[in-house]
């Protein structure tokens, strides 16, 4: 077994920086390179890695140079959703010219903007015989990991399996214009954030040690809505803050989504996951809430129920920032603080896990097939919302489905 894994990052934005900070808790990997179309941003992210001591990273001038860079054998794909396919097309050519150099790839959520793209990602990994990991950080939240382990070992073992999982992710809206644009991102908040909630709920309902296929999704019922951001005053706020191409009077995306996913277990017992996501929640900041319920037990997590709270009187009038919590909305009053967000949201555990799998040459348990399965559930949810009916989950049924939001033809008042 090799002792250390050399990693290159594709993309140098918000999530790359989160990942880089989390590598402080990964002992056997080094970040050696970053490529992004904007070289100075790539250099900045590489400098962050060097400054905090998680690798002797450099910014590279091209994706091909990153692939060929000395020591890099695994890539973390952290570019925008609209660049996934373009990235793998260029990667395919570069990897084919230097076979065996890149051994593994990890990709941020969502794996693709739709099922078609997610399948291209799977094909790419298979064709090049790469180990592949799907970067779903919330499965590695310490509270989720610990809660799941104890619930299954104690409550479920003695009184029966859990039957209901609830997961919600809410904040006041994403940080970059492309997230708000249905065609570029793949949809609205359903595609952006329900991917997390769907997967964490499924994971909690799955018996530890059993495969994903031990619970089968049967049907989905979902709703989407534009509750806040297509109101005229907020259409103007979006144009002002995100640019005039983000025009929710003409091309809105959903800022609220909910879905109920019906599963059955191996004995045919019904299981339910209820997931809710929104970009229209104004609280202290990002709120992840998770619940798991069974016959004689329950667990609940709320990431804003922090141990650390700070109070600032009305006389503390500093500049606004995100130093207390991700997607922070205020700097005064009683504010929750998440002391180590990279740990709490799961990035540390996630990157430790994928780095170790790749070093050992093992295929991670959470991989591109899971990213594809999530994409199928999300597309079924969009279809359900559009047709206002429950959708049966039939394999292959969503291969060509593109949500109306992504096609730019969704009318929230229709
Ligand atoms: N796990 C999570 O909770 C989480 C949170 C945020 C974002 N994400 C995911 O991470 C990915 C990146 O999101 P972000 O918030 O960092 O976005 P961002 O806009 O902050 O950063 C995107 C980066 O990609 C670069 N880029 C632009 N065009 C590119 C191209 N053609 N190829 C490669 N890179 C390109 C940009 O220069 C920028 O550095 C998205 O897929 C997003 O869904 C996940």
The small molecules bound here are: nicotinamide-adenine-dinucleotide
What is the CATH architecture descriptor of the largest domain? 2-Layer Sandwich
CATH topology of the largest domain: Dihydrodipicolinate Reductase, domain 2
Structural class: alpha/beta
List low-pLDDT spans: none
Given this structure, which CATH class of the largest domain is correct?
Answer: Alpha Beta
Folded structure, characterized:
The protein has 414 residues and is an alpha/beta fold. It has two domains: 105 residues, NAD(P)-binding Rossmann-like Domain (Rossmann fold, 3-Layer(aba) Sandwich); 241 residues, Dihydrodipicolinate Reductase, domain 2. The chain is 37% helix and 22% strand. The protein has 14 helices and 15 strands. The strands form three sheets. It has a seven-stranded mixed beta sheet. Strands 3-2-1-4-5-6 form a six-stranded parallel beta sheet. α1 packs parallel to α2 and α4 runs parallel beside α5. The relative contact order is 0.16. The structure holds nicotinamide-adenine-dinucleotide. The site of nicotinamide-adenine-dinucleotide has 22 residues, from α1 and α4.
Question: Main attributes?
Answer:
414 residues, alpha/beta, Rossmann fold, Dihydrodipicolinate Reductase, domain 2, 7-stranded mixed β-sheet, 6-stranded parallel β-sheet, 15 strands, globular, binds nicotinamide-adenine-dinucleotide
Write the layout of secondary structure elements.
Elements: E1 5-10, H1 14-22, E2 29-35, H2 39-52, E3 58-60, H3 63-68, E4 74-77, H4 84-97, E5 104-108, H5 115-127, E6 131-135, H6 142-159, E7 164-170, H7 177-180, H8 182-185, H9 189-205, E8 216-225, H10 232-242, E9 256-264, E10 270-278, E11 287-294, E12 297-302, E13 308-312, E14 333-337, H11 341-344, H12 347-360, H13 368-387, E15 391-392, H14 404-407
Helix pairs in contact: 1-2, 4-5, 5-13, 9-13
The structure holds nicotinamide-adenine-dinucleotide (NAD).
Residues 10-16, 36-38, 41, 78-81, 83, 86-87, 108-109, 137, 176 line the site of nicotinamide-adenine-dinucleotide.
């Amino acid at each position: 077994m090799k002792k250390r894994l050399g990693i290159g990052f594709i993309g140098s934005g918000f999530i790359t920086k989160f990942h880089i900070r989390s590598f402080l808790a990964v002992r056997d990997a080094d970040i050696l390179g970053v490529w992004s179309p904007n070289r100075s941003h790539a250099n900045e992210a590489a400098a962050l890695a060097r400054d905090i001591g998680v690798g002797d990273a450099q910014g590279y001038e091209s994706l091909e140079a990153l692939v060929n860079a000395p020591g890099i054998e695994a890539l973390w794909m952290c570019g925008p959703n609209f660049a996934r396919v373009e990235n793998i097309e260029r990667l395919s050519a570069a990897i084919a010219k230097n076979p065996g150099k890149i051994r593994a790839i990890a990709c941020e959520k969502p794996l693709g903007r739709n099922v078609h793209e997610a399948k291209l990602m799977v094909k790419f990994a298979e064709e090049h015989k790469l180990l592949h990991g799907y970067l779903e950080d919330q499965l590695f939240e310490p509270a989720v990991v610990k809660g799941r382990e104890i619930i299954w070992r104690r409550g479920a073992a003695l009184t029966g399996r859990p039957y209901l999982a609830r997961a919600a992710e809410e904040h006041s809206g994403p940080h970059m214009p492309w997230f708000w644009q249905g065609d570029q991102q793949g949809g609205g908040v359903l595609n952006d954030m329900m991917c997390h909630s769907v997967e964490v709920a499924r994971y909690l309902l799955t018996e530890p040690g059993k495969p994903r296929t031990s619970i089968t999704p049967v049907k989905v019922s979902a709703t989407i809505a534009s509750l806040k951001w297509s109101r005229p005053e907020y259409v103007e706020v979006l144009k002002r803050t995100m640019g005039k191409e983000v025009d929710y009077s003409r091309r809105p995306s959903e800022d609220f989504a909910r879905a109920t996913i019906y599963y059955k277990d191996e004995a045919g017992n019904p299981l339910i996951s209820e997931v809710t996501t929104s970009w229209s929640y104004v609280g202290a900041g990002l709120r992840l809430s998770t619940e798991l319920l069974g016959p004689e037990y329950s667990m609940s997590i709320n990431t804003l129920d922090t141990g650390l709270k700070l109070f600032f009187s009305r006389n503390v009038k500093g500049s606004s920032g995100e130093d207390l919590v991700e997607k922070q909305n205020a700097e005064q009053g009683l504010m929750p603080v998440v002391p180590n967000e990279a740990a709490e949201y799961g990035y540390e555990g996630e990157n430790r896990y994928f780095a170790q799998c790749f070093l050992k040459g093992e295929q991670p348990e959470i991989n591109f097939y899971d990213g594809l399965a999530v994409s199928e559930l999300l597309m079924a949810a969009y279809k359900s919302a559009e047709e206002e009916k429950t959708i049966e989950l039939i394999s292959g049924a969503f291969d060509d489905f593109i949500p109306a939001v992504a096609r730019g033809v969704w009318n929230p008042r229709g």
